[in-house]
Design goal:
The complex is a heterodimer of chains A (451) and B (343).
Chain A lengths: L7 H16 L21 E8 L6 H18 L25 E8 L4 H13 L5 E4 L3 H14 L2 E4 L16 E3 L4 H16 L4 E7 L2 H16 L3 E8 L7 H8 L5 E5 L2 H13 L6 E2 L2 E2 L1 E6 L2 H7 L7 E4 L8 H14 L5 H20 L4 H8 L2 E3 L7 E3 L6 E2 L2 E6 L10 E7 L1 H4 L23
Parallel strand pairs in A: 1-2, 1-3, 3-4, 4-5, 6-7, 6-8, 8-11, 11-12
Antiparallel strand pairs in A: 9-10, 12-16, 13-14, 14-15, 16-17
Helix pairs in contact in A: 2-11, 3-4, 5-6, 8-9, 11-12
Chain B lengths: L1 H31 L6 H20 L1 E10 L5 E7 H6 L1 H9 L1 H23 L9 H23 L15 E3 H4 L8 E3 H23 L1 H11 L1 H6 L4 H23 L9 H16 L4 H18 L2 H6 L3 H16 L14
Antiparallel strand pairs in B: 1-2, 3-4
The chains are: A alpha/beta (451), B mainly alpha (343).
Amino acid sequence: MSKSNFSRRGVLKTGAIAGAGLALPTYLRADGHSGYTNAPGDSGTVTIGFNVPQTGPYAEEGLDELRAQELAVEHLNGEGDGGMLNTFSEKNLQGDGILGKKVEFVTGDTQTKSDVARASAQSMIQKDGCIMITGGSSSGVAVAVQGLCQEAGVIFMAGLTHSNDTTGKDRKANGFRHFFNGFMSGAALGPVLEGEYGNERQAYHLTADYNWGWTTQESIQAVTEGMGWGTTETVLTPVGAGDFSSYIAPVLNSGADTLILNHYGGDMVNSLTQAVQFGLKDKQVNGKDFKIIVPLYSELMAAGAGANIEGVIGSMNWNWQLQDEGTKAFVKSFGEKYGFPPSGAAHTCYVQTLLYADAVTRAGTFNPCGVAEALEDFEFDGMGNGPTLYRGSDHQCFKDVLVMKGTENPTNQFDTLEIVDQTPRAQVEYPADHPMFGGAEATLGTCNPGA
Amino acid sequence: MDDIILQTLNGLDKGSAYALIALGLTLIFGTLGVVNFAHGALFMIGAFCSVTLQRIFSTSFEMVDETQTDFLGNPLKVETPYVEAWFGPEIGAAMIDWSVPLAIFLAIPVMIIVGFAMERGLIKHFYKRPHADQILVTFGLAIVIGEIIKANFGANPIPTPAPSAFAGAMDFGVMLGFEPNAIIYPIWRFVYFLFSLAIIAAVFAFLQFTTFGMVVRAGMADRETVGLLGIDIDKRFTFMFGLAAAVAGLAGVMYTPILSPNYNIGMDFLVLSFVVVVVGGMGSLPGAVLAGFVLGILQSFASMNEVKSLLPGIDQIIIYLVAIIILLTRPRGLMGRKGVMEE
């Protein structure tokens, strides 16, 4: 007579453990043969996730990012003219996808909301099997999605995020940023501002009340005070305030002769327009012409601000008017496909997608830890910014920074900004343990392959 | 002192927009009993009438200029507006320059038609439904209209400047006997304030001094009795919906040089205007106007650095704080009528 070893308690216990295991998100389960999240295995394709704002205040930036990302996929798969693949210093990508796998993509709408962006990225990883997430137009969103990708064990190639925090106190081993940051803006703007406006000015800051605004103000303020400028007042303004007149009116009689607008997107368009309406650009204070400064520019914002932007100084990560071969190749590909020049947001997302593909090829694996290792301390050229370093200690790219000025006499609809200075990379570098970037306590942590 | 005057002026132009939107909201509520959360969308449609007219006037034909190149190095296509080709460069340029005020003539018929279509096509089916249903359907409608605008005009704010004659600022302080440059105020904001006063006066005059207005007021007070007199009050109320839509639309048309419109501009104003209606008193037209200006000015003062240093964050909550205080002390709002929303 046979005797069963099953007991009621044993069956229940086993069932509970199996149920809990099945209920786990797929990205937390080990992939038996590969050891990392969403390993493509023998599949002939690999999927990447473009997580960009398609609605909400930064939708135009997001849609431009998406155009560039689709173009990057075309070039990786051997379609089109190849764009920057022809000028990139590394020659590993041959137009046959990544490691011979055709690149496919899914898109998500972040709505520029951290919770929505996380949910969208999570869906891409869990349901669509994305091996990498890229895109975004807000530092709040970038920090949130970067944290999620770290937990999930996939690589996050950040899009437009300019806060020091992204590769500062919130840096992550699985996250990489090609875009520049607030500190670099300050370092690039400082000498130009001193040369143009002298070292005896009084600055009034209006600052968007979230992590990008705070760190940008901190960076710019440190630079301007370092060159002798005083700070009359720093005022936090709500994001999406629309009418900034009640914040601008106090500037008039504050004794300040310079207004620094730490605003981005629609907020910057509105605050700059309203500052001009209040006559600030025509005003004289302390015997000097009143000046307005916008630390972070984009072509889309410049177009929105119209004539108000004329003569206003700011900074950019990249601009389509650069004359290097990489820029020319990208502008040609993008311009012929879409009929207008690409924005800085589009450029950084295009480059990030190619850099990821190249890192996978050099590493010979999609394993995020292998990819991260390939990206760390990687030096490259031919992507529009001159010789560039992806620093290993904080996953921040270091390259030249552009100082821009609103064009005084535009000749066509794209002629909104002109390049005033191309600040060399050495001038915008800083140590990885800089106090504005979380100090010595800030660490990347360890790479998470997800299994 | 000059700061106080400046913030008062600031509050007046902001209050003007609140008052105009709230006036339309309360007009619809007072006549049709509908809580119209799509009213902000009407403000937005008005704003996009300005954008549309500006685009119509700026519609251009292309001529290739072989002497210049575009961003890809191809011969530059120079665009010349049709209005400049048809009416001459000076008149054409003036038409483009004055497109915002000229958009008033486009907005009035457009808004009346949109108002009629909205009321006859959708809202009339919700007259006998609970207010929650009305809020849901009109809010949904506002989202749909916003998305349509976004699909056609994009998501970014579109610059729609005031005519160059009204661009820039005026020295308001000198007029009041202050030192030069003490109170600088944008000319267009002052124009907007005067415009809103004219619209408010016209609406009140229409209701007060015309037979049509008298019947509408009678219907607002006692709809059944007016109906028993053989007057088709529903038709008049439908007209009032169109009128309210036109008021919101005109408020939007003239606001575009102050705030570059995007698809979300209506939502930005809607919630605040709804609070204005509640504070003013549901169904009270003078209450809506009074509350609009009062809350606009209070919001402006709350943004002063001196106030914010004493009460951090007060600029974000002042309107809601005042609303709570007023509703606690005067549950019907500043000028609310007895019996409205009390059954």
